[in-house]
Amino acid sequence: MNVQWSFKNCSGLKKSQIRSYWDQKQVRIERLLRETPGPRNIRISIYFYEDRVNQYEARAVLEVPGRSLAVQASEMMVNAVLDDLTDSLARSIRKYKNLVRHTYRQQRKERNSSDLDMALGILSADQKSNRKDSFFKLLRPLLAFLEEQAKRELKVLELEGSVRPGYITPEELVDEVVILAWENFSTRVPEKSLEHWLISLLHDLLQTIEWESSQFVSLDEGFDLQEIDRSAEPDWMEDVLGYHDKMTLAELVPNDEVTEAWGELSNEGQQLHIYTVLQGLPAFRRQAYLLHSVEEYTAEEIAHIQNRSVTDIESDIGFGRDTMHDHLVESGMIN
């Protein structure tokens, strides 16, 4: 991180002490920014006013992609003002990252829905004309969002021992969803959007795996899957913003403050804490909780997907959030 300093009424010794103490605080800021791309420039101004009660005033301006985050603090002691400045900056960074994540997921969700809606007519024509390969080639690249859901659910099932590791991959699971979509397209309930219907098929397949891991819907041998491109186009927002689609506490337990212990964990360590809680939730509750917290579906949308009442969905979301909160408080990860 490139730090630009500005001092007013500070001696040479005091400047040196301030820089040295900031080096310790900067570790925390860099940890919060480790997934944010681009140069990391911060301007810090320190003012000393001998005639004030709070003699030290500090300001920081951090440049992040698309924004400038500005914070300030004032205290009697110089270390205290840097502590406050760091806390304020950390809150501002978390708020910025949450906003980026929310914007990204909302735009991705809207794009997925729009793409599937536009494809619906062509998929119907393919199904009526028995064009299976065309159906698959059109639908499969649109389901990257479903692959992310499948990845999370399979990891939970593997951790709890319901499915052998490597028994089936997220990609293969989504392939199975496409096969079922083809086989059942003509009986699809028109009132349920294609997007919601596909998520329902995924949940049904996951239930089949959990109950009978040795038996599974077989791929249609009429498809030569090796010749079909199943991958979606790279997401430009992920490249530009440095966004990686992993679960965060900000979405799973909003409004809770993380501790230093959480920030010191690796990404893998953080995800392990999260999955420890998720594997203890019943499937329907876990899926409702994640669809709302991570995928940003409304309770009404989830009720439509799961064919349950909005009241039950809201209860499941609250239960998941409370369970996650209690575990993380006991583990010392949040306050």
Question: In words, what does this structure look like?
Answer:
- The protein is of the alpha+beta class.
- The chain folds into 3 domains: 2-100, Double Stranded RNA Binding Domain, CATH 3.30.160.100; 130-227, no CATH class; 246-330, Arc Repressor Mutant, subunit A (Orthogonal Bundle), CATH 1.10.10.
- It is 59% helix and 10% strand.
- It has 13 helices and 4 strands.
- It has a 4-stranded mixed beta sheet with strand order 1-2-3-4, covered by helices on one side.
- Helix 1 (12-32) links the parallel strand 1 and strand 2.
- Helix 2 (78-128) runs antiparallel to helix 3 (132-139) and helix 4 packs across helix 5.
- The protein is elongated, with a radius of gyration of 25 Å.
- 26% of the residues are buried.
- Residues 214-244 have low confidence and may be disordered.
Short description:
The chain is built from 13 helices and 4 strands. It is of the alpha+beta class and 335 residues long. The chain has 3 domains: 2-100, Double Stranded RNA Binding Domain, CATH 3.30.160.100; 130-227, no CATH class; 246-330, Arc Repressor Mutant, subunit A (Orthogonal Bundle).
